[in-house]
Amino acid sequence: MSDDAERSSWVERLLPIRDVARREEALRAAGVPEPEARAILDEVHFRRKGREKFPRAARMRFTRDGLAQASSKVVAEHRTWSIRQRLGGVGRVLDACAGLGGDTIALATRWPVVAVERDAETVALLRHNLEVYGLADRVEIVEGDLAGLLQDEASSGRFDGVDCVFFDPARRTDGRRRAGFYDPPLSTLLALRRLCPNVCAKLGPLVDVDRDTPEDCDVEVVSHEGAVKEVVLWFGGLRRSPDAGRHVCATKLPERVTWERVHDAPAPPVVESPGSFLYEPDPAFVKAHLVREIAGRHGLSQLDDRIAYLTGDDRVDDPVLSRFRVHACLELESPRVSAKLGELGIGRVDFKSRGVATDLRTIHREIRGSGKRKGVVFLTRIRRERRAIICTYDRPRPAGRRRRH
Fold first, then answer.
1. Partners of 223 in the beta sheet?
2. Phi/psi of residue 100, each to 5°?
3. Residue 164 · residue 90 · CB < 8 Å
4. Which of 6, 186, 206, 308 is 20–30 Å from 340 (CA)?
């Protein structure tokens, strides 16, 4: 297949298909040669995943690893907003690991940018993506290895006068994300901070916020639509409390709700059974160890002091909490749980597990309800005992309409 129109036709036909195996089968059945089929499947992947992050994804160009690591528009814009709020006036920014340009685009929308990228093919994609957003004239691209450029006096002079540095090292190798792997290594932060003290470093969501981060920075855990997207380190003038030790906070997007960790927050009480409601904190707030702060603010208890589920009898409306109405709590035995689901008329069941080793595929086979209602079963521990808590989703009540007078 060499006809671009035919390839585009295949892409459009496969876009609605969510299952990758079904896409592959359709191409095999049509006798599409392997190299062309792989190119079509890549394009479908880029279009589907790209539009989750970029409004102009259909015109952009990607690689699989580059797209996987790229910040979405919402997350990148929050970070640039934070830079402006924390630092004030900014003349020029260094994007030390530009990649495909997701963060470069967000930065260049506000300020002139010097973007460093060492891979020639990625530089070509970066230039194209900047053109898509009409930002090519606001970005100076420097092609080369970051560590070498910082050590070379002539080359590093191109970075003179930057007011802020953004550092987003690669976290993937051979197509897989590896905990603790960064390229360039995190030791590069030392050279960047000598160049400019105001550094914002984006790390992956697997980072331990207390064990794996320096003492002299602010740490922000960021989630978007219920998933942790990144852990951000803020140095120099970008810190909220420059004279303090490590400062930890969590932010939930798109609501842009931020809470700060309080070091002496008291532990919530631990109860023997759930109240009328079960609450699941946003994952960024769990990762930032803010469960105590949330429980204290809303008068909630824990079911186990090692597990982040909270409970209480009052209905709490807070964007950092997902709320569920509790209907039953029983021992984690599949026949009993299935029978109780049937009694409650719950036939469509979601499962959430925390603190209990489970195979969710097995659970889906063994626990089944009946009825028209939708519910969720929490597989967890209460005072170290394995329990199943049967709930229904308790959505926030919509605001009433205002009467016209």
1. 228, 252
2. -80, -10
3. yes
4. 308
**Rounded Cα distance, 162 and 21, in Å:** 48
Residues 41 and 26 sit within 8 Å (Cβ to Cβ)? no
Q: Residue 352 CB: number of other CB atoms within 10 A?
A: 17
**H or E segment and range at residue 234:** strand 227-234
> What was the pLDDT predicted at 358?
83
What's the pLDDT at 400? 39
For residue 364, the 8-state DSSP code is H
Own/partner pairs for 16-19, CB < 8 Å, 24+ apart? none
Q: How far apart are the first and last CA of the chain?
A: 67
pLDDT per residue as tens digits for the range 250-273 = 999 999 999 999 888 899 999 999
Do 75 and 253 contact (CB within 8 A), yes or no?
yes
Identify the DSSP state of 216: S
pLDDT tens digit sequence for 102-149 = 999 999 999 999 999 999 999 999 999 999 999 999 999 999 999 889
CB-based contact 256:373 (threshold 8 Å): no
Q: Give pLDDT, residue 282.
A: 97
**What per-residue string of b and e applies to 128-153 under the rule 16 or more CB within 10 Å gives b?**
ebbebbebeebbebbeeebeebbeee
From CA 262, how far away is CA 267, in angstroms rounded?
11
As separate numbers, helices (DSSP H) first and strands (DSSP E) second, the chain gives 14, 18
55, with CB counted inside 10 A (0-12, 13-18, 19+), is exposed
Nearest to 285 by CA among 304, 259, 309: 259
Inform me whether the pLDDT recorded for 193 exceeds 50. yes
**Which residue, chain included where needed, has tokens 């792997």?**
181
With beta carbons less than 8 A apart as the criterion, state whether 174 and 153 touch: no
399 residue type, one letter: A
What are the pLDDT digits (tens) for 212-222? 999 899 999 99
Q: Of 11, 18, 5, 73, nearest to 42 (Cα)?
A: 11
Contact 263, 290 (CB under 8 A): no
Residue bearing tokens 């205002």 = 402
- Cβ–Cβ < 8 Å for 386, 357: no
Average pLDDT of the chain, as a whole number: 90
Cβ proximity of 237 and 86 under 8 Å? yes
Sheet with 346-353, strands from edge to edge, namely 301-302, 310-312, 277-281, 321-331, 385-393, 373-382, 346-353
